[in-house]
Amino acid sequence: QPGIVFDNVVFGYESERMILKGLSFEVPAGHSVALVGPSGAGKSTIARLLFRFYDPLSGRILIDGQDIRDVTQASLRAAIGIVPQDSVLFNDTIGYNIAYGRNGAGLEDVASAARGAALMGLIDRLPQGFDTEVGERGLKLSGGEKQRVAIARTLVKNPPILMLDEATSALDTRTERDILATLRQVSAHRTTLSIAHRLSTIADADTILVLSEGRLVESGSHQGLLKID
Ligand code: ADP
Ligand code: ADP
Hints:
Layout: E1 4-11, E2 20-27, E3 32-36, H1 43-50, E4 58-63, E5 66-67, H2 73-79, E6 80-83, H3 94-99, H4 107-119, H5 143-155, E7 161-165, H6 173-187, E8 191-196, E9 207-212, E10 215-220, H7 222-228
Parallel strand pairs: 3-8, 3-9, 6-7, 7-8
Antiparallel strand pairs: 1-2, 1-4, 4-5, 9-10
Helix pairs in contact: 5-6
Bound molecules: adenosine-5'-diphosphate (2 copies).
Domain ABC transporter: 4-229
Subcellular location: Cell membrane
Protein name: ABC transporter ATP-binding protein/permease
């Protein structure tokens, strides 16, 4: 099980304005860490650095003790499964959409992806069957159902690291609670980095880090942080 380390990471899109000003934190292997902070704090930037859309100007990012600059793009993508806020679905069946998470998925993969998703409790929470066409961009599904398909699609790849990027931020409170319960099950014992601007979204994390203006200003448990307020 790999952990993630940000070691004194400095980064800015423009040389005059640093977004991350020496950011250090760790997601220990098998643990769940959440980053919270106001809009513009640099949360998405951290996700982009983790996927090497950009590299730090100084400092290092390690996965499983290895500098990610020494890792191939393919193994980086295999190691990290991402659940974004707004998942794009194909105009096809729920099964195909889930199995697409595997390269070159065939019919047999679609069937086994469906079994996997059902075992995780993702599929039977959808009102319609596995063979249902989702419509372009999942138009026939509700926001919550769409996220279940997106989560299942990420999990069939069995990535050792899970990155939740505002994964439930677009959902209403009740649907969010429901999906967070599912995520709690599927992310147990998996290295999980979650970023969100709402504290309710990340209440399940072992550790919560509060990011402001490129630095960590607080860290603690959800309960502990609520006491500060
Ligand atoms: P968050 O996800 O916490 O809302 P971001 O990481 O998206 O924050 O953005 C942090 C800062 O970086 C913001 O001030 C934003 O305007 C700036 N920023 C984001 N992307 C770019 C970019 N591609 N070029 C220049 N500035 C950017
Ligand atoms: P696959 O892993 O099958 O190629 P994914 O849907 O997992 O397809 O996305 C491929 C890669 O695109 C991810 O591993 C990640 O590097 C990047 N990616 C996808 N969505 C996002 C996102 N919302 N934010 C940052 N990176 C993303």
